[in-house]
Design goal:
Length: about 180
């Protein structure tokens, strides 16, 4: 199979990690892969905070209800949107699409490097967004989309088979 398609079909949400460190240059490579994602009108509004500090990981782990895997992952990448740069600003949420594409590239890059990753949502939950804004000292115009746990997988989890050809139509809805 084509290596890109192999990575796409192998990607899974990893929730158990070894705790082994991931080097900053690898995390940088993963974030740079995120930067290769498309963005609305070329207005790339995303930014990232990479977290490898154990005290900050503990704060995130304790403050985010579905990010408990951070305890063993030991690393996180927070995908952020700068509403001052986003196409449509605060009026049209194109930033969500832009940052989602970026997050998917990050997940695929981690998979391709033999690392595990798991997307945990911040937006649209106001309490999670506010927690991250406070904890990470984000200015008002910076909005967190998600926190992605990154680390060395403890096991070799299998990807879910999500292929469902009944959801593919040709030329119009319902046409097979």
């Amino acid at each position: 199979m084509n290596p890109t398609l192999q990575t796409i079909h192998s990607r899974k949400s990893v929730r158990q990690y070894t705790g082994q460190p991931v080097e900053r240059d690898i995390l940088t490579t993963i974030m740079q892969a995120g930067m290769a994602a498309p963005c609305s009108r070329g207005q790339c509004c995303w930014s990232f905070i990479a977290v490898d500090d154990s005290a900050m990981i503990e704060k995130l782990n304790n403050g985010l209800p579905y990010a408990k895997m951070l305890e063993t992952a030991k690393h996180a990448i927070i995908v952020l949107a700068d509403l001052n740069l986003a196409h449509g600003g605060t009026e049209a949420p194109y930033w969500i699409q832009d940052c989602s594409a970026t997050a998917e590239n990050i997940l695929l890059a981690a998979e391709s490097l033999g690392l595990g990753a798991c997307w945990t949502a911040a937006h649209p939950r106001p309490e999670r967004v506010e927690f991250l804004k406070t904890t990470l000292e984000l200015p008002d115009h910076i909005i967190p989309l998600c926190v992605i746990a990154i680390g060395h997988p403890k096991d070799a989890p299998k990807p879910k088979n999500k292929i469902d050809n009944s959801k593919i139509f040709w030329n119009k809805w319902g046409q097979k």
